[in-house]
Amino acid sequence: MSKYIEYPKSTEPTIGKNAWVVSKDESLAIESLPEGRVIVSFTYWKEHQASLKAKVDRKEVGIFFTVDDDIVQESEVIQSAMSAWGVIAIDFPIFRDGRGFSTAAILREQFHWEHELRAIGDVLIDQLVQMARVGFDAFVLREDQSLETALIQLKRFPVKMQNDWRSQRTILQGVAA
């Protein structure tokens, strides 16, 4: 089982065992999906949601959005289906594509998604602090990234200069004392 970074709101980041498998094969038949918890694309979900009912009932389905998914245009579909998903992931096809940050902020602020929001794909340690600020609370790093170094990175800045999804701006007078 692979590992990932868990960082729920109001907690310290930790390394956890990843119980979810991402399936990016859009042509895969339902019966060919991996056993247990699986994250499928939003497109796959829309095409096969009725056939996924048994997995939904067992809380074994999550979805991922690609950077090309227009979640504002699909808001009615998303909001009606959110209770069926155990996790929402956002796929970063390349680290320098920042559209996933906007998707995360919209899911947290406008859609009020309160469960796990996971970053997958080309996720680098350098991005984690910013990802945590917009609402991500789980990170599956690119294979060449160190989980231990990622934990250090997430704990590096104890002072907050702006409000964000995770916390309010730090009162500097209290930090200096």
Model description:
The protein has seven helices and eight strands, in the order E-E-E-E-H-H-E-H-E-H-E-H-E-H-H. Strands 2-1-8-7-6-5-4-3 form an eight-stranded mixed β-sheet. With 177 residues, the protein is α/β, with parallel strands linked by helices. 29% of the residues lie in helices and 18% in strands. The protein has helices spanning 42-48, 53-57, 75-81, 99-109, 128-134, 147-155, 172-176; strands spanning 3-6, 14-17, 21-23, 38-41, 61-65, 88-92, 117-121, 138-139.
Briefly summarize what is shown.
This protein has 177 residues and is α/β, with parallel strands linked by helices. The chain has seven helices and eight strands. Strands 2-1-8-7-6-5-4-3 form an eight-stranded mixed β-sheet.
- Percent range of helical residues: 25-40%
Tally of helical segments: 7
Shape: globular
Largest sheet: 8 strands, mixed
Classify the secondary structure makeup into a structural class: alpha/beta
What series of H and E elements makes up the topology? EEEEHHEHEHEHEHH
